[in-house]
């Protein structure tokens, strides 16, 4: 499916990062709420600038299409609305690829979508540089899988396409576990960098490093209760590896706070706090961070 068409809905940092890479190997259309410049500039982690023409449109002006892939790269809280708006204008049942943080939207949209549904869990780091481009702040890896276990070959095909496009990807059979692992990473990084307005790498320094350790301790206790196995190197090593690899990145939640947008606090912290409550676990750090994101203030001790 080298010439398969990819429709990307959600031209934020991740959406444009994926689009700018895919544009080199496949037809790509990007759709959002408003019109963006067709010439988009990608700044690589090495500082190289590359301007690429993209087919940019809006959901309201999206022509009838029959894409092979529909990538939803919106925030989790926008995913259902974006899915409905897009599917109303599409012919056929594309392969739906979900790039959302957390673990709420994925099973819900799998039940709704009549075609194959793939889930992507990525540690790629990126932030927007205005309407004209995106900075690829840290290279990561994207895991692709489906919750039903019925579309292994589809996952392999998309992983191969992403690798050809320059984004490291791997098809896996344990995507549910990978999504929980990504949830742990997001919970340990995003709320703290949003709270203190810092880049990921600054979490390595005091006073933030002990805060990360305490959050990871709480997350690890929750994961043990819900039956999610830790990665081979352990939860702390996993989180610090991602922080190291995305040290220069402005996490998505920080970008949202700085721009005055809603955050994904419910998608990222919600499942963890709900599980903690079910199992009677004390999670003061996670609760304080959720409180900050809901009300705008927090004190961690």
TrEMBL record:
Pathway: Cofactor biosynthesis; (R)-pantothenate biosynthesis; (R)-pantoate from 3-methyl-2-oxobutanoate: step 2/2. Residues 7-148 form the Ketopantoate reductase N-terminal domain. It holds the Pfam family ApbA. GO terms for molecular function: 2-dehydropantoate 2-reductase activity. It catalyses: (R)-pantoate + NADP(+) = 2-dehydropantoate + NADPH + H(+). Its EC number is 1.1.1.169. The keyword NADP applies. Keywords: NADP, Oxidoreductase, Pantothenate biosynthesis. Residues 174-293 form the Ketopantoate reductase C-terminal domain. Catalyzes the NADPH-dependent reduction of ketopantoate into pantoic acid. Belongs to the ketopantoate reductase family. This is 2-dehydropantoate 2-reductase. It comes from Billgrantia desiderata.
């Amino acid at each position: 499916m080298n010439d398969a068409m990819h429709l990307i809905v959600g031209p934020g940092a991740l959406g444009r990062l994926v689009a700018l890479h895919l544009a080199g190997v496949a037809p790509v259309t990007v759709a959002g709420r408003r019109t963006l410049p067709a010439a988009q500039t990608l700044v690589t982690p090495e500082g190289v600038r590359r301007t690429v023409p993209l087919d940019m449109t809006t959901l309201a002006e999206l022509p009838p299409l029959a894409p092979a892939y529909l990538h939803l790269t919106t925030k989790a809280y926008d995913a259902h609305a974006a899915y409905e708006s897009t599917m109303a204008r599409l012919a056929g049942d594309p392969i739906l690829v979900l790039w959302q943080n957390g673990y709420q939207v994925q099973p819900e949209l799998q039940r709704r979508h009549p075609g194959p549904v793939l889930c992507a869990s990525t540690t790629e780091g990126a932030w927007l540089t205005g309407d004209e481009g995106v900075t690829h702040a840290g290279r990561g890896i994207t895991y692709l899988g489906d919750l039903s276990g019925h579309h292994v070959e589809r996952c392999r095909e998309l992983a191969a396409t992403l690798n050809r496009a320059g984004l490291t990807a791997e098809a896996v059979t344990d995507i549910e576990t990978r999504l929980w692992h990504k949830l742990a990473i997001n919970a340990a990084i995003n709320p703290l960098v949003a709270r203190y307005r810092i880049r990921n790498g600054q979490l390595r320094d005091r006073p933030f490093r002990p805060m990360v350790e305490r959050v990871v301790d709480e997350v690890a206790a929750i994961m043990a209760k819900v039956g999610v196995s830790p990665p081979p190197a352990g939860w702390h090593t996993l989180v610090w590896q991602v922080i190291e690899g995305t040290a220069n990145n402005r996490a998505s939640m920080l970008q949202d706070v700085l721009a005055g947008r809603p955050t994904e606090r419910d998608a990222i912290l919600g499942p963890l706090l709900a599980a903690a409550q079910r199992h009677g676990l004390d999670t003061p750090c996670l609760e304080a961070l959720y409180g900050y994101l809901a009300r705008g203030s927090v004190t961690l001790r």
